[in-house]
Structure formats: C-alpha cells, structure tokens
Amino acid sequence: MTATYTFDVFSSLDGYGSAGGNWTGYWGKQGPELLDHRLALYREEQRMVFGANTYRAFAQMLASSTEESEVRDPWVTRMRSLPATVVSSTLKEPLDWPDANVVSGDAVDVVARLKEESEMPLRSHGSLAMNRALMAAGLVDSVQVTLFPVITGQTGASPIFQGAADFDLELLEHRTLDGHIQELTYRPTLHV
After folding, report:
1. pLDDT tens across 12-62, in order?
2. DSSP for 148-183, written as a single string
3. Which domains does the chain have, with CATH numbers?
C-alpha cells in the first residue's frame, strides 16, 4: 500500500507563502473556523515531512514564542506532536521536535521510500522547494492551498510555485472558513 502525500501550504492571493513588515503568519485573518478546521486536520495520525529550512523556521518560531502567541495555536502544537521526517544533509539528530528523525539524501528518493513504507498518510506544511520537486516527480497526491484574502505585492516573500513545472489541477474539495478564507484541495498532474 502506498501512503498518500499532501502538500499543505498557506498563500496570499498573489501566491506568497509569507510576508515581511507587520504581517503575521496568517496575515491577521485567522478566525475560529480556520483554527478548528486546522486542528481537525492534524488530529488524524500522519507523518510530517519537512525540508531543513522549514524545520529550522518552525523550531526557531516555537522556541522564541510564548504559550499565548498564535505560533502555539492548538493545531501547531498538535503538528509538533506528530512523527516527522526532516530531509537534510546538514541537520543532525537529536532535533528539537519530540518524534523527528533526519534522513539525508535527495527528497524525491526519501519521499518515494516513505510513501512505500509508511503505514500512515504523509503531510508537509511549507517546504516549498522540496514540494515543487516532489510535485514534478509525481509524488504529491494533493495540494491543499489555504488562500488568505490579502495581496502582498510589496512585502510578499516565498513565492509558492516560483520555478515549478506546469500542472493541471483537478479540484477535489473546497470550503470557505470564517467567511473569507478559501481552502482549495487539488490533485496535481504534470502538464505535458
């Protein structure tokens, strides 16, 4: 049995995964429906897969946050409690993540092996360059984009699909959260 792999990403309308300036991780638009839905998504048993840069960013954000900050929203705390694989040639164990291991090698090879061996679904939140490569290799079963109602033309950082191959997308699911946030789940197919 092959495990499914979901590339889960937050985006501004103009395709950025984050922004500088005074924008927050949710661009200040999160509400109770979004937060409850995210927690429900992460309640399911699954293995997280991160690239080294995303792991470092999460570890740094969590280490410098307080219990009251939005960085420690319940779904993020739950995500951190899930087993995780970090694909890296530079990081060494032990990691500051309760159940994480480091696997060195090409992310395409690592995730192909994980898909064959994992008894639970795989999910990656962020890790943009890694997930673009995994999509091009046909290893991503679904792309879940949470679209926030902002345009970050001046402060946008981390273009989600910059340099990606061309893909046709089949809409699998969609929902509106808190009246203004769109969650779109697609099955990607390399466009030939």
Report:
1. 999 999 999 888 789 999 999 999 999 999 999 999 999 999 999 999 888
2. ES---TTTEEEETTTT---EEEEEEEEEEETTTEEE
3. 5-190 (3.40.430.10)
